[in-house]
Design goal:
heterodimer, A: Rossmann fold, 6-stranded mixed sheet, 3-stranded antiparallel sheet, 10 helices, 20% strand, B: 14 helices, 82% helix
């Protein structure tokens, strides 16, 4: 992706001069605040929005060509899906095959085999006849992952795959993504789950209306870069005089952009209940220090 | 005994009744098919809007001596385009846009009818007149039905995917803009056909109730199509037939019957019915989401 700018008809510039490059066989995290252009970036890779300038190329081909070959697979956010829709796990997975089917979309033996294989890979084969709304959050995610597998996409986009998913499913998804990486796929994962990024992502793209930094996780995923990406939205916890320590004995700092964690004081009382109270508390402490 | 039988087959002895019954059944079936897509896509209001927006087209076609279906279809698509334009170019919400546009078209239609009262009958357009349907009009209904059935028959899987997950449809290379316009055109076309049977006011019932009923009865899209189409045919056939005895408006009979079937499903559907939900709560079984 090089110098991609996207503006919406209402004049909102969602993305400006965004550039990054990923090699095949990569898992890459897409990290940024809400409204930073993550969805727009996805949309431009899927060809839903036309960049005003710049271009997106995959395997050296323009997006239009890539879509024709069904190389981009998309795993949507849970909120985007109508879970009451009268389709079964099997039906949804089969939708990954539509692009490869004939005009009438009648499944051939090869399509059925591919769907079965994909469902077995995500351990959802026993649920194939279930209506999709009757599944747990983690199972729902796995079905859509199976659809991406059945499609055989080489670029797989996952929008917030870990939201509303239990730890076991998260591990299962991650190990599946690693298998896909081994087969040479490019996997782009948008996530708020900062803690899991260094665990399974080789690369990171930091985004805030443009690409702020991209590259290897160890180089890009630094405190300084994250502070720039989140620009004050990020919560930072510093543990002074605390028993919470890193493995090498240093006091640690915690960064999160998740919901506000509950903080307990030393005696087990709630430190503060709301934002104002927190501000008041900080002020008091500052004064006593003076 | 034979008297009862005699009176039961009386409607079939009249040519106009026979025509009314089979044309209604055809329209009911086609609308039923489409109603599955309409309910799942959330286009019920759009169906209502289009059925009213076609009125100026119908009036103008009758005034100019053109086929009514042609005028209606053009007016319907124009209305849809107007809505899309306002929606894209202003901050007005979709429901307000639909409300403004369809009443504008409907008002224009009423105006045209009142200016040329001899050419068109207001009652025919608003309430339908299947008993007095002319042969050229029947021909138009048949053409619309065949085209709709063929398109849905060939492309129902694409349309289903488009209703369920337009993003996926696009990423695998389906042309979603084409699917959108196709579905909208089918909606306009069937609204025109249904206009003949039940009139502009009740068209939306034919385009929504069978689909909504089927949605309560099954969790599979294929079955939903069959149920909604079957319900459309059965209720239209029976409604038209019954209207002979009640001496009532055919449209009223058909739609009332559809409502009764819907109510039955609403209460007694094995999984998604009201009583089934209550039973589940009593036995504290987890509710399927």
């Amino acid at each position: 992706m090089s110098d991609v700018s996207v503006a919406y008809p209402n004049g909102h510039m969602a993305l400006r001069d965004a550039s990054f490059r990923l090699d095949s066989g990569t898992i890459c995290a897409l990290v940024g605040v809400n409204g930073s252009g993550k969805s727009t970036l996805f949309k431009s890779i899927m060809g839903f929005v036309k960049p005003r300038s710049g271009q997106v190329r995959i395997n050296g081909m323009p997006v239009r060509e890539v879509l024709k070959q069904h190389l981009v697979a998309y795993v949507p956010q849970a909120e985007e899906v109508d879970w009451q829709f009268p389709v079964s796990v099997w039906d949804v997975t089969m939708m990954g095959r539509y692009g490869a089917m004939n005009f009438l979309r009648i499944p051939r033996a090869v399509d059925k085999a591919k769907v079965e294989e994909s469902l077995r890979r995500v351990s959802m084969w026993e649920f194939k006849d279930r209506q999709i709304g009757e599944l747990s959050g983690g199972q729902k995610k796995r079905v859509f992952l199976a659809r991406a597998l059945a499609q055989g996409g080489r670029v797989i986009l996952l929008d917030e795959p870990f939201t509303g998913v239990d730890v076991k499913t998260e591990e299962a998804i991650i190990s599946l993504l690693r298998e896909l990486r081994a087969s040479g796929a490019i996997i782009l994962v948008s996530t708020h789950n900062l803690g899991s990024v260094p665990e399974f992502c080789d690369q990171v793209v930091l985004i805030n209306r443009t690409v702020l930094a991209y590259g290897r996780t160890s180089e890009v995923f630094t405190e300084q870069n994250l502070a720039a990406t989140f620009g004050g939205v990020l919560r930072q916890f510093q543990f002074e005089h605390s028993t919470v320590q890193d493995h090498d004995g240093r006091a640690i700092r915690v960064l999160t952009d998740d919901e506000r964690p509950l903080v307990f004081g030393k005696d087990g009382h709630l430190e503060y209940k709301d934002r104002d109270e927190h501000g008041e508390l900080l002020k008091q402490r500052a004064e006593t220090h003076e | 005994m034979s008297e009862i039988l005699q009176s039961l087959i009386t409607p079939f002895q009249y040519d106009y009744m026979l025509k009314a019954i089979w044309v209604s059944a055809l329209v009911g079936g086609v609308c039923g098919f489409l109603s599955s897509f309409v309910t799942l896509k959330g286009w019920s209001l759009m169906g209502d809007a289009l059925s009213h927006a076609v009125v100026p087209g119908v009036s103008l076609a009758y005034i100019l001596g053109l086929p009514f279906a042609f005028g209606a279809f053009v007016a319907g698509l124009l209305a849809a385009a107007t809505m899309a334009f306002i929606r894209a170019r202003s901050r007005i919400r979709e429901d307000a846009t639909i409300g403004i546009v369809f009443t504008t078209y409907f008002a224009a239609g009423l105006l045209l009818i009142s200016l040329f009262p001899a050419r068109v009958d207001l009652k025919t357009i608003i309430l339908g007149n299947i008993l007095g349907i002319s042969d050229p009009d029947i021909l138009q209904v048949i053409v619309i039905s065949i085209v709709t059935l063929v398109v849905i028959g060939l492309k129902w899987r694409d349309l289903m995917l488009y209703c369920f997950d337009p993003n996926q449809a696009r990423t695998i290379g389906l042309r979603t803009a084409v699917l959108h316009v196709t579905l909208l055109s089918l909606l306009a076309a069937t609204a025109v056909a249904a206009l003949q049977a039940v009139g502009a006011c009740l068209v939306v019932a034919m385009l929504v109730t069978p689909g909504a009923t089927a949605y309560l009865l099954t969790d599979r899209f294929g079955r939903m199509l069959v149920i909604s189409a079957g319900m459309g045919v059965a209720t239209s056939l029976a409604g038209a037939y019954a209207s002979y005895y009640f001496n009532g408006a055919t449209g009223g009979c058909i739609v009332t019957l559809q409502t009764l079937v819907f109510l039955a499903a609403f209460l007694f559907a094995p999984k998604h019915g009201m009583l089934a939900s209550k039973r589940r709560i009593r036995t504290s079984e987890p509710t399927p989401v």
